[in-house]
Design brief:
Blueprint lengths: L4 H20 L10 H8 L3 H7 L5 H20 L4 H18 L1 H12 L12 H7 L14 H12 L5 H22 L3 H17 L1
Helix pairs in contact: 1-2, 1-7, 5-6, 5-8, 5-10, 6-9, 8-9, 9-10
Length: about 200
């Protein structure tokens, strides 16, 4: 698949803007972050910013889209099924949260208050090319949502299980443990691991 300069430039700008937000939210709450500040940090104009992200909050949906892309890449590089695959999703998420704790907590708060849609932004093929130049197989592949991936992995464990109920437990762990780790200064990997142990142990009883 060939990419023109324009498409790659647009992809780089989107990624640069997200990276600028990552840097800024290391010391500042996302809610208080001004678009002007983000634009200056990313070395773009405010008009350019809004051309890519009509609302500031759309950056969070783009971040979630890249998280789903990462999961697709992990699955491509090392196919896992069932419980090991689910645990890998949580390990990868913990890594992302540790890198950008403030932004991830802001993301959850926006979801709770319904200020952003729960679906991720679609990730353009050019963005995938810049981020993963060594995996052309993913450039045009549909990226499943996080929920789709998790539901699929639950089916791999036991097709007859009540997947909706299990998803509710996993979602509570996924979002709740982030907030607990943030407020209580606990290790998220440790919290996730313990919560998943309880969830899967309960299922077997």
């Amino acid at each position: 698949m060939k990419f023109g300069r324009r498409a790659l430039k647009k992809a780089k700008t989107r990624i640069d803007i997200l990276n600028a937000v990552y840097r800024l939210t290391a010391d500042m709450n996302f809610r208080n972050l001004k678009v002007k500040t983000i634009a200056e940090e990313a070395d773009v104009t405010e008009m350019t910013f809004f051309n890519y992200f009509p609302k500031k909050e759309d950056i969070l949906r783009y971040m979630m889209g890249l998280w789903e892309l990462d999961l697709l890449v992990l699955r491509h590089r090392e196919p896992l099924t069932g419980e090991p695959a689910i645990r890998r999703v949580f390990r990868h998420t913990a890594k992302l949260v540790k890198q950008h704790p403030g932004l991830m907590v802001s993301f959850i708060s926006y979801l709770v208050t319904k200020e952003i849609a729960p679906d991720a932004n679609e990730i353009e093929a050019a963005d995938r090319r810049l981020l993963y130049p060594d995996i052309p197989e993913i450039y045009e592949t549909r990226i499943p949502s996080g929920n789709e991936m998790m539901m699929g992995h639950l089916s791999e464990i036991d097709p007859s299980m009540d997947r909706t109920r299990m998803m509710l437990h996993l979602a509570s762990c996924f979002y709740g443990d982030v907030l607990i780790a943030h407020t209580a200064n606990l290790d998220l990997d440790w919290l996730y691991s313990g919560s998943l142990d309880l969830i899967f142990k309960t299922r077997q009883v």
